[in-house]
Structure formats: structure tokens, C-alpha cells
Amino acid sequence: MANDLSDRKTSGRVTILDVAAAAGVSKSTVSRILDERLPRASNPTADRVRQVAADLGYVRDVSAANLRRGTSLTLGVIVPRLTDTVMAMLYESLARACSRRGRSAIVATTDDRPEAVRAAADSLFNRGVDGLVLATTRTDDDFASELRDRGIPFVLALRGDGHSAASLGDDDLGGWLATRHLIDLGHRRIALIAGPEHASNALGRVEGYRRAMAEAGLPVDPSWVVPSAFSIEGGAEAVQGILKLDPRPTAIFAVNDNTAIGAMSVIQRAGLNIPSDISLVGYNDIPLVSHLSTPLTTVRVPFDQIATGALELLLAGSTDEQRIATPTLIPRATSAAPGR
């Protein structure tokens, strides 16, 4: 027992689940015994739980307790960065949805780094938020499970993990709509700026692209699919390799408007015309893209609907429900038949 306790002490933050496991009782029993608001129990089980908690170095998370009681009327929103227009639009939509419910929202940014997500969550906990909306979920990290183990209310937005409560866009459908649009215009060699492989929304759009190509009986050359960051720089870098292909694709679907803008700048600097030399489709319909010199064809994401869904799931205490919002293709001047 002593060695086990020593191991637990050195393995990281001690949770109520650690105390329950070491004491051989349920999580709810530990919570009840260690809750200072309740009368102090005096019996062998309570004594054992308090001793195990002391031996493990357990410190009650007051902020988590406040979250479960839902007392602050404030929600914490964690996004990769607010310089990303998509994330700024999501946060603004969440703030409006909160305001309609008599609540407020505060935001923390992480630069899409898992360790920064944890620090942001701790910071928001310390400010007493009632729950978290996470737009930072990664396929290579399972922070949602950590929150679930601690009993922290949360919901995922834009990016999901397949088992937590989430309000998402139908990214597979959106990728299919963008690609099908280009196919219907007559394109057969369609490249893809695929976004980051750790983001489920990018992966969904990639699947939609592949599904549309397969349904049309069109092959996908591996060299046509290029991962990228969700950024202008990422799109600019990705498209350079695509333009060197022989034969060159006649169209590009970029799974994010920022990457499409980056690609557009490189294409135009290369002396090529959009759309007569190469068509381009983006994703999200951020406000800027309709005002470009050549307005961008894109897929519109209903951010207000996603934000409202996330708030409703969080307030309802859902742990696994999925809300899926339908995107819409917005044809503009950057897509046309090949050679037009």
C-alpha cells in the first residue's frame, strides 16, 4: 500500500478517482466524505477515505466543484487563436448565444498546443466558469477524457472526437459539395489542400472530397493531396508543390478559406489566372472572401447554429449527443469550367 501511494504521488495531479481507487470505494462516496459543506462523517470508511486522501496528497478542486454547481453564469471558450477568423467568428457566435440566455463567455487561446489547452482550462477554472466549450480537440490528444474524469462540464465545437458531446458542421458533406461542384463544372484533376491531420473537421472534408471523386469514378493521385496548416502561409506553401505537377490539376479545393487565400496569392504571382487556368474553392465563408478582387467560391458554415447547439448541449448536461449543422455551397468567381 505504501509503495502504491508513493507511486501515485509522483505520477501527477491526484484526482478524486485516484482516492476512490486506493480506498476501494466509489467516486461519489469520496466526493461526499470530502465535501466540507456536508456534516463530517465519523465511521471507518470515512476515516479511511480521509487518510488515503491525505497520504496521496489530494487537494480538493474548488473550481471544479463550482463548475458542477453552475454558479457563475459564465462559460469558458478555448480556441487555438483569435487571429484565425473562423475561431473569432465561432467565439462571437457563442458570445451572442450566451447573451440570449443571460450568460457571458470568456475566451482563452492556445496556439493549438495540447499543453496550452490544459493551462487555459486551469486558468478558466480558477475564474469559476460554469463549463467549457472546446474548439481545440486533436486526434492525437484526449484532453476531453481528462475533463470527463474530473466531472467538468464541457462540449466540443467545430472539432469532435466521436464520443463526447459536440456541435459540429457536416464536414464530410461540405467536402463533398465543394468537390462535386468542381466535378460538375467539368474538372477531373482536382487537388486538395487538406489542412492539418490532427483536426477532425479537416479530416471530414478530406473524406467528402474522396467520396465525391470515387462516386464520379475519378482517381485521386496521392500527389494531389497536400496537408497544410489552417493559415494563409500554410495554403501558400501547399500550393507551390501542386503547381509543379505535370499534368497540373485544373482545380483546387482548400479545406479552409485562409489556405485558399494563401493559395490564390501564389497562383496569381505565378502568372496564372483564376479561374481560367485553375479553379479554386475554399471553406467557411469568412467575410473577407466575398470582397476579394476575384470573390472566392466557398462552403458556408452556419456558425450561429453551431454555437447555439454547443450552448444547449452544455446547459443540458449532455455527455455524448452530437449536433450536426448543414453547410452550403456558395459559388462565386473563382470556379468555372476548365479553360474558361
Automatic annotation (TrEMBL):
Q: Name one GO molecular function term.
A: DNA-binding transcription factor activity
Transcription among keywords: yes
Entry keyword annotation includes DNA-binding: yes
Provide the HTH lacI-type domain boundaries.
Answer: 14-69
Pfam assignment, any one? Peripla_BP_3
Q: Which PROSITE patterns match?
A: HTH_LACI_1 (PS00356), HTH_LACI_2 (PS50932)
What Gene3D superfamilies does the record tag this protein with?
Answer: 3.40.50.2300, lambda repressor-like DNA-binding domains (1.10.260.40)
Q: What CDD domains does its record include?
A: HTH_LacI, PBP1_LacI-like
SUPFAM superfamilies linked to this entry: lambda repressor-like DNA-binding domains, Periplasmic binding protein-like I
Q: Which InterPro entries match?
A: HTH_LacI, LacI/GalR-like_sensor, Lambda_DNA-bd_dom_sf, Peripla_BP_I
Q: Which UniProt keywords apply?
A: DNA-binding, Transcription, Transcription regulation
UniProt-recorded name of the protein: LacI family transcriptional regulator
